[in-house]
């Protein structure tokens, strides 16, 4: 019973740590880093 409770606690800690790491990665990026590199590119449907 103790091993099962400890493994459940460890699973919860790993899940929370993963969510925290993903949040840190996503919030550390600037909006400009997420913009397309080529801003002059027009879609093929709009070009013709």
Strand percentage lies at under 5%
Backbone structural class? mainly alpha
Q: Are there runs of 5+ residues with pLDDT below 50, and where?
A: none
Separation of termini? Answer: 69 Å
Describe it for me?
This protein is an all-alpha fold. Helices cover 73% and strands 0% of the residues. The protein contains 3 helices and no strands. The chain is rod-shaped, with a radius of gyration of 22 Å. The model has no long low-confidence stretch (mean pLDDT 79).
Give a brief outline of the structure.
This protein is an all-alpha fold.
What topology emerges from the helices and strands here?
Blueprint: H1 2-28, H2 31-34, H3 44-47
Can you tag this structure with a few keywords?
48 residues
């Amino acid at each position: 019973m103790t091993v099962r409770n400890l493994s459940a606690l460890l699973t919860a800690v790993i899940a929370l740590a993963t969510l925290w790491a993903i949040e840190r990665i996503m919030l550390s990026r600037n909006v400009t880093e997420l913009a397309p590199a080529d801003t002059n590119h027009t879609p093929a449907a709009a070009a013709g």
